[in-house]
Write the structure tokens for this entry.
Amino acid sequence: MKKEIHPGNYRLVAFKDLNNGKVFLTMSTAPAEDKITIEGTEYPLVNIHISSSSHPFFTGEERIVDVEGRVDKFKARVAAGNAARASLMSSQKKEKVPKKKEVTVS
């Protein structure tokens, strides 16, 4: 193996799932500003939004995890679009215009 290519700050880091509070302790170089004490030992803490303990693929549950409100914003845009389309259609009721008859001159 090549020497001096691996990071020097490889250490035990705690990762906390914000959905269910589960904490994982593993080796990582991830930067961390927070700290957590586990069994009397202090570790750097990285907060994550989803992990294997809360992801629907691993848990078998079907649920929407929406931290930033993206789903609500999308539903609001769809509802506004449907309302605009309905008001446009009601204001522009199509009138039947008789087709022009073709006249042949002989």
